[in-house]
């Protein structure tokens, strides 16, 4: 959520810049008609689609995007390591076979040829297998060196980069998940208390609504103010201090009255969508409902 907010804020700045550029382009189209930066800003407006990451249905896409962003540091150092290795072997191949083969005539050519060989494209400029040409010319020493270098880079370095990248992405996703749970811990606790009170006492919702309406009538009588009906309906049972105090009081009364929940009652609760939604928002796995009671009751 934090990184998504950063992306949204940057997109907002980009949109503001695009609006300014559009205004400038409108007022002085002859001056800015062929300026490339104007087109870049206009194309940059496509980045506003990053806002869709805030929707729940795009949670997997958000995880992939955040994983890539968190792994940019790993990718950078992976490129640095791979460049250093290819540079060393490129210099070696340039000194060994650079005079007889155009593919290794210069260090840049040698490095790019080695990169193609490491990424399954090892052929010369005419399309013939480059490794086979070198084996015929240099024999067994080249074969042994080629196998060792290929195993070192393709199997060792590439797989190590992939493993570290996956570990970094997984760890970042775990930390991000824990941070999100911590940010909404208070609201989740209040929602869980409210649902438990409603499950134990089905009439509590009507009493909470009545208490909220009584507060509205009292305030409107004092100040001659009353919010719109749809706004009152939306905030009737959530978010208001008096309502939150009501649910907190009811929960404390239930807790001190000795009310117990057995397995049968808990299994009935698990059939209620509201209770399941609260558990899922708290990152509680509800796939194994039978053992869930024992885990929570421990």
UniProtKB/TrEMBL annotation:
The signal peptide, as residue positions, is none
Where would you say this protein principally sits, based on its record?
A: membrane
Q: What's this protein's name?
A: Catsper1 protein
Compartments it resides in: Membrane
Keywords tagged on the record: Membrane, Transmembrane, Transmembrane helix
* Any one cellular-component term (Gene Ontology): membrane
Q: Which residues form the Ion transport domain?
A: 13-168
Q: What domain of life does the native source organism fall in?
A: Eukaryota
Q: Please give the start and end residues of each transmembrane region.
A: 12-32, 67-92, 144-166
Q: What's the encoding gene here?
A: Catsper1
